[in-house]
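ERR on first pass: missing label on line 2. Operator R.T. fixed the label and resubmitted. Corrected input:
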Amino acid sequence: MIKKIFKYIHIYKILFKYAFINATAYRVSFLVAVLIELGYSIAIVIFFQVIFANVTSIADWSYYEVLFLQGINIVTSEITLGAFWLFNLQDLPRKIKDGEIDIALLKPFNSLFNLSFSKPYFTAFIAILPGIFLAIYSFIQMGLEFNLLRLSIGTMLLFLGFIIAYSISVIFSSLGFIFDNATSLSEVGIRTLLAYKKYPHTMYGTKSGRLLTYVFPVVFVSSVPTSAIIRAVEPKYIFLAVLLSILLLYIALNVWRSMIKRYSSASS
Amino acid sequence: MNFINLESENTLVQVVSMKLSKHINQYKNYLGTAIEYRANLVGNLIQEAISLSGRLLLVFAIFANNSSVAGYSRSEIIIYYVITPIMGFITLSMASDTLGKQIKRGELSNYLLKPQKIWIISLMKNLADKTFYVTSISVVYILGLIIVFYFFPGNQLTTTNIFIGLAFGALGFTIQFTMDIAIAWLAFWFDDVWAFKHVKDIFFMILGGSMFPLELFPDNIEKMVSLLPFKFMFYTPISYMVGTRSTQNIFGDLSLFFYWWLFLGLLSFLLWKKGIKRYEAFGN
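pass 2 clean. output:
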């Protein structure tokens, strides 16, 4: 088992290296891509800047708390998009339609790993830097003391949130095996994540809060980890994050296996 | 005795209808393609509903402690955000993406041989996609508007306001399409124009009124932003539709629209003239 994990880490290192070479081959394009990612991050910051020019808080979260959340949100969005979405799962419906899955199935490693992680979007990993700077800036402005325990819990929750985000994306992308070329349908998962995870989880009412915590647990991707670092987090959220990440990953793997079984090639 | 030259009148009518029919046939073909992948429509609808519901939940949270924000009541902001996606469908243009790739790959050559101007082909495709989406989601939106009327009876969504809003929405599409064509022609000089498209999208998000009504900006910034063309994508048509923008501004807005449309049209024309001279395509 350990040997297998190291094998996939080694494979990913090679894939990441090639992604870096490809991304930086044309330096101007790479720089422009980084600036575009920065532009979208700035747009989010401007959005909340304008909102807070007119209000003093959102669901008891102050301006700098929300700004810290946006910093974490930028980091999680870029990792999610760059690690497994943009050039991987997003492209799955087209690959299914064109029969390109056959090549992935023939390779001597897991097909889900291949189709999820084989083409990292390197630029996104650079674009997490503005998010980190924004988070650090906001943390300093809040005048909070650095707490290693909170940071560790927050980091663990971020990792579990990443597993949840990945599992949701896999489940929805697998719809491409059922509906021909249904690109927008398979994007529902990632769009839901991106739409809801940037807001404080305490802002959601009873019904929507339950839906986004227990059924479609996007609150664990950015908001709950942020809360763990700068505010406080109820122990139940830690327990739920562990439980839901394992459960959703289990569901995603099984959905994938059953979809691969029903896949029939387009005579590639 | 005067003879009425009926033959030449018919010829003129025939010529006009022939020119129009090839564009209309192009439009029908693209509409057929758009209808072919219907599952994408369901996905698009769900995505819009998700994005909208996220915004509405934020509005509810903001207005939990505030009765008005920048002069907007809760119901006005909610109606504004409910209309934003439909206005986005009306004003959206995807010309730069397609045309830019065609220039880069040399596929433009095929279109240069056709008896149609390429920008008209692109326009027909955009209109076909738009027809399909707007027609398909109109049922959902009529239902949504009925719900809005029921929960917010004091709103100003009158027939006149809706008509003015839709008219400005059409103008918004015209400006965005012209801007998109100009961006597409940049592909004659740059390897890829995707960056310009994203810059345009970012400007529309912030300065077009998609993220929030422009009144939320500080006054001096709002004055500058209101002189730019981006507001015609969302803010201006939606504001007229919901009644927060007085009809006294119509003349000023139309003047500004024509100014920007002429400027962007001229820019697009010059870029095409210069660009097509340097266009090269090999092996196709």
